[in-house]
Amino acid sequence: MLRDKNLVPLSRQHQHALALCVRLERAMKEPDDLAAWQAEIEQQFAQEIRVHFAAEEAHLFPAAEHIPGLQPLVADLREAHNALREMFSRAASRTLDAAGLLHFAKSLAAHVRKEERQLFEEMQRQMSGPELAALGAALEKALADAATACALPNPAASRSSR
User: Which of 52, 78, 116, 162 has the most other CB atoms within 10 Å of its CB?
Assistant: First the structure.
């Protein structure tokens, strides 16, 4: 299903997260500079994902919880946010080893895919145009802080993912 324009800003940020996951999975085949990767993860969280999670928790998830049958999925997604925050914290304190970084990449990618393939699809099927527009306006405002950030890959991490 084509993504509704009101969910596109979240989907765009999901693409950024998935790109990080792909690069990280490639790099962990021959890990070298784990600190550089953890610094990049910390930067991505500070500049985009922190605001992204907050917007989802304040606006997207409450809207989804009003849709019949989505409550268990939203509960799973909230739990995933908590687990991912813990992994972001571990990256910030530079305590993830190569296996931990690979687990992080797989967890974040699975979370994004669940939101895109299950949550967004069902919300688009069941919400009216005006409901999606109201959600989109709230998300646009909530994501404004992340929209001004430009997360550039850590040069050391970029070298190790080639």
Answer: 52
| C-alpha pair distances (Å), 44 with each of 14, 54, 71, 87, 124 | 12, 14, 28, 13, 28
CA distances from 108 to 11, 19, 28, 89, 104 (A): 14, 11, 15, 14, 6
Domain count, the chain: 1
Biggest distance spanned by C-alpha atoms of the chain: 50
Asked whether residue 109 is domain-assigned, the answer is yes
For residue range 110-134, what is the model confidence (pLDDT) as tens digits? 999 999 999 999 999 999 999 999 9
CA 51, CA 146: separation in Å to the nearest integer?
Answer: 6
Residue 144, both tokens:
């404004």
CATH code for position 127: 1.20.120
Q: Which two tokens stand for residue 93?
A: 């304190």
